[in-house]
């Protein structure tokens, strides 16, 4: 087995200093961080998580093509043009070609500075050397995308706790990102359970989210075009962005206005249909069946009751405004949850 390749000096960059006195630190004029997508993807290690078949790969491929061409990312954010490496490790060349042709047919353009890779060994078995080689050949690289993190992290060392293993796996990518000063984006999955804090939805332990510099979680209800991109990190401001997906072009677009405006409309629609079919349920049951954030559901139910769209009954249950208080058998909730989770999606979202 070949030994891991040592990191080469970064072209045209001095070695990073790691120690100062307090007075020296206050006098240093640090350069501004490099952004792949200003306000969204900064230098360092970024993690994008979302449910399977939700559109993460469309999103990451679209970002890579936009940056490689210098086109507005997500249709609205100006970016600096430069080389991008997209490791599509769950795809084939044919599938990537089909997606790119779909993008180009909808008005996109070819991206000569976008490198597409479909096979890469794990980090400890040659993957790190492969990434270093590409970065050294492209000293002006703007972004490296690993789709997915699980395909390239490799096996965990024996005897290591799950937290330590997640942290160590992420740090291997972060070391490269920091050394070369290039933003890395790891594509990952979320848990099946909903959570109050969107970071808690990321699959794995807190060691993973603790190691990365920024966490992004993409959420979209099945069968819905609109979604929300949650972002938090060390150099990026915590925010929620309203998003829209076009299945014909495979393009994600950042919408104008706060995400809550779009969330409220979609959430109220889903809750109205649910309560009409299954009256007499409590907020926790509604959130679980619809796979929505419990806190959002509680707030939305209270507002809908105040607006006369629902009726709150004793015991914390909810009914349509024109129905009585006869409850529906809660065993039927499993049928709705199954129907919701298997609803046909819009196009192929990987």
Automatic annotation (TrEMBL):
Region Disordered: start-end pairs: 311-350
* Highest taxon above the source species: Bacteria
Among InterPro entries, the record links this protein to:
P-loop_NTPase (IPR027417), WH-like_DNA-bd_sf (IPR036388), WH_DNA-bd_sf (IPR036390)
Query: Residue ranges under compositional bias (Polar residues)?
Result: 324-344
Taxonomic lineage is: Bacteria, Bacillati, Actinomycetota, Actinomycetes, Pseudonocardiales
Quote the protein name from its UniProt record. AAA family ATPase
